[in-house]
Amino acid sequence: MSTSKLPLSLRFYGVSPWELEVIYSLLNSLFAVKEHPDVEQEEEYTTMIEITFPLAFNDAFFKWFGNSRWDKTKGILKEMKRRRGNGKTLRLYMKFTGKPNITFRMDLIDFVLELIPYHLDPKKLPKGVNEVTYYFDEKLARWAINSATSENETFLFSQNEWKIT
User: Fold this and answer.
1) How far apart are CA 105 and CA 132, in angstroms?
2) What predicted TM-score, i.e. pTM, was given to this entire model?
């Protein structure tokens, strides 16, 4: 990676100044963090954080980002969830820029992130997909593909195949 910091987007609402400072400090050591407070609030959630990494989700990212920093980031987000209690209190989005872009939408903070080259094989994706969204399946206790979008269409992954919505 170059010596100039890549821009990282941090959108949020309902985050305490202390929590924001900790998240900012972790991310600002590697990225030029652009904060976007007071984004439109989702009705069911009192707190929302959206982190858009300017890098692809792969082994190279995690090697560069570092295990210690990743564990600290997960730790603060888990602590935020614990402090807010059960229910729909914290919504977290972690986005990675790549081909395609990947979004993890987390209602539960469980960071068993798996590498996903199988899912992102261009032979398996619908043509022209530029973003793939994952969610954490609580019943199966693993990440699952939710949807994919192209310029003109949205697809849902159901019964092991892509379906146009």
Assistant:
1) 11
2) 0.70
